[in-house]
């Protein structure tokens, strides 16, 4: 049953909507990847983070409903093909991880400022703080295991190899995830830099 949209529209609905969509999609990709890899440590970490991402998507969707508004879906005709790519064991873990990148500041800086300034209602404020803390922990876990994947590939693989955990052709992964999922996947890999840009852009638009 659609949520009744009679409440005054908060300025941060777009932010909550963006987080819910991106986290849900990231949960799908990470689960598919976990099921495709033969690296047990990587799979374990991916499943843990995927569960968190899925939970974030559900909880922020619920929060929108509690505020009196509906989650706004975004049609993505290429989602199935991209999900199949992450689920493909012939595409290496190293290609899915990508090169190591430098972190760029605090991607949640604007949200932290909003929390400090009282921009969000108390319940949303608590959820956002919890979300930031959990994302930071997930990022640490994934960066650690990604580093191990790169190290294994560098020690045992030659460029052009296609076995799981080794290098594959870049052409196999040229069509990456959608903007929302790419932002989450990038933040998990390299310190949330792309997620920051996505959230900053969407947060300016009211749902």
Structure description:
Helices cover 63% and strands 0% of the residues. The chain is mainly alpha-helical. The longest helix is centred in the last third of the chain and has 35 residues. The C terminus is likely disordered.
**Distance, first to last CA:** 19 Å
Percent strand equals under 5%
Kindly state the number of beta strands. Answer: 0
Q: Tell me about the biggest sheet?
A: none
- Helical fraction equals 55-70%
Overall form:
globular
**Gyration radius, in Å:** 18 Å
Query: Uncertain runs with pLDDT below 50, 5 residues or more?
Result: 155-183, 187-194, 203-207
- Structural class comes to mainly alpha
Q: Give me the strand/helix succession.
A: HHHHHHHH
- Continuous helix count: 8
Overall pLDDT: 78
Can I get a quick summary?
With 207 residues, the protein is mainly alpha-helical.
Write the layout of secondary structure elements.
Elements: H1 13-36, H2 40-66, H3 79-86, H4 93-97, H5 109-117, H6 122-156, H7 179-190, H8 193-203
Helix pairs in contact: 1-2, 1-3, 1-7, 1-8, 2-6, 6-7, 7-8
């Amino acid at each position: 049953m659609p949520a009744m949209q009679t409440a005054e529209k908060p300025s941060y609905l777009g932010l909550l909507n963006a987080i819910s969509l991106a986290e849900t999609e990231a949960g799908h990709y990470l689960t598919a990847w976990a099921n495709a890899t033969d690296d047990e440590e990587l799979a374990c970490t991916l499943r843990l983070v995927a569960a968190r991402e899925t939970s974030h998507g559900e909880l922020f969707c619920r929060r929108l409903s509690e505020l009196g508004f509906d989650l706004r879906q975004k049609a993505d005709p290429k989602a199935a093909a991209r999900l199949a790519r992450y689920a493909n064991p012939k595409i290496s873990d190293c290609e899915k991880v990508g090169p190591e990148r430098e972190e760029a500041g605090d991607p949640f800086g604007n949200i932290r400022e909003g929390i400090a300034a009282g921009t969000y209602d108390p319940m949303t404020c608590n959820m956002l703080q919890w979300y930031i803390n959990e994302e930071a922990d997930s990022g640490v876990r994934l960066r650690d295991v990604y580093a191990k994947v790169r190290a294994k590939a560098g020690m045992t693989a030659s460029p052009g190899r296609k076995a799981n955990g080794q290098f594959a052709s870049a052409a196999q992964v040229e069509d990456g995830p959608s903007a929302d999922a790419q932002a989450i996947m990038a933040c998990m890999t390299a310190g949330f830099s792309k997620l920051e840009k996505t959230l900053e852009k969407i947060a300016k638009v009211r749902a």
